[in-house]
Design a protein that fits this description.
Elements lengths: L14 E2 L2 E2 L19 E4 L2 E4 L5 H4 L24 H7 L1
Antiparallel strand pairs: 1-2, 3-4
The protein binds iron/sulfur cluster.
């Protein structure tokens, strides 16, 4: 159903005929850690995340898993090599 609170006109799963059913009755604004993320969008009443109704929750247990401004460091990690598959490659 179309949002009629903070993201007016956008289709939202939390919207019902009785109003917004999300915790607190509306989306929550972005938090400081979100700065730089491309999912932030300016609405008439503030800045909100286009992917999450409550950005603070996304940062509660570490980095937001859908943030666009954070790079996950994988360099330095050794990849496990299956010796059987490795021998077949030769
Ligand atoms: S995707 Fe994560 S980091 Fe980006 S605005 Fe939303 S909650 Fe914030």
């Amino acid at each position: 159903m179309m949002c009629a609170t903070v993201k007016e006109g956008e289709d939202c799963v939390f919207m019902a005929s009785t109003g917004c059913t999300y915790n607190g009755g509306s989306c929550q604004p972005v938090v400081e850690s979100c700065e730089g993320c491309t999912r932030i969008r300016e609405y008439g009443n503030g800045r909100y995340c286009t992917a999450s109704p409550d950005p603070a929750v996304k940062w509660k247990n570490g980095n937001c898993n859908i943030a666009t401004h954070i790079k996950v460091e994988t360099a330095g990690k050794k990849q496990k090599v299956n010796p059987i598959k490795a021998s077949k490659r030769k």
